[in-house]
Amino acid sequence: MNDRREPCAGTGTWHASPVLLAAYAAGRAHGADVWSVEAHLIACPQCRAELAAVLEPTDQELLGNIRDSVVTALPQRRTARIRRGVGWLRWVLRPGTLIAVGVAVLGATALDLVAGVGDRDGGVLWLLAPAIPLTGVALAAVGEEDPCWEAILAAPSALLRLVLWRTIAVLMFAVPLASVAGGLRVAVAGQSGWNAAWLLPCLALTSATLAGGAFIGVERAARCVGLLWCAATLGPPLVRTGGDALAAVRLAAAPLAETPAFAATAQVGWALVTLFFVAVVVLTRGRYEVGHHTKGVTHDVI
Fold this sequence. Notes:
The protein has helices at 18-26, 31-43, 45-54, 57-73, 77-92, 95-115, 124-128, 132-139, 149-154, 158-188, 199-216, 218-240, 245-252, 264-283, 290-294; strands at 5-7, 14-16. The chain is an all-alpha fold. It is elongated, with a radius of gyration of 30 Å.
C-alpha cells in the first residue's frame, strides 16, 4: 500500500505516490489502481501537477496543445449566449410549421371569399380558425428524423418540453396571423371588428392534440382532432343542405353568436375542456419519454 498511496498529514485524505503516478503515466497500472487514480485526480490539483511532471516530454507537449486549443476555442460570454439563443430558436421554430399555418390561413380566407360570408360576426375563417394551429402542431412533432433527435436521446425528459415549446411557437404565430386575416376580411366587407370567440376552442383543440399525442402520436392526434372539428362544424350543415357544399359553408358560417360552439355560454365549457386535457398531458407526461417512443407507443410523437 505504501508504494501506491501516501496519507496526507492531519487529514483523512491521501495522495497517489510517485511510484503509482509513474506507473499510471507509463500505462503499467491496472484495474482498481487505474480507477482509483483517475477518480482521485479529478479533485486533487496536487496529484495532477505531480502527474504532469512525470509525463514524457512529448506527452506534456501534446496535452499542452490540447489545452491551448480548448481554451482559445471557448467563445466569449456574450457570443455564447447568442449562439445558445440561436440554437434554441433553430430547435423550436421549424419553417415547415409556419408555412403550414400560413397556407391554412390563406385557404380558409379564400374559402371565405368564395362563400361570400365574411362579416364581423361570422365567416369561414373564424369557423375554421380553432383548427388552424393544428396544421403546424402536426409538423412540430419530434421523430427520429428530427435534427435534434440525438440530443433528445441524451435527455429523454426534454421530449415533452420541446413539443410544448414548439406548440407555443405555433400558437404565437397562428393566432395573430388568423386575427389579422380576419380583421382584413371584415374590413374588405366594409365593416369593422374582431371576434375572439374562437380563441378558447383553439386552446381546447390544441390541448386535446397534445393529450392524444401521448397515445397515438402528435401528428395523428392533430389529424384526428382537426377532422373531428371540421365534421362537427361542417357536417350538420352539409346534411341539412342535401350535400350542397357551398350552401353548407354559408350555413355553417352564420354569425358566431348563433353557433352553439361559439356562444358565450359555451366559453366556460371550452375552458373546462382545456383544463381537462392539460391535466391529461401532465398525468401522461411519462408517455412522451424516449423509452415509450422507441417502443412504438408514440411513434411520431414529438
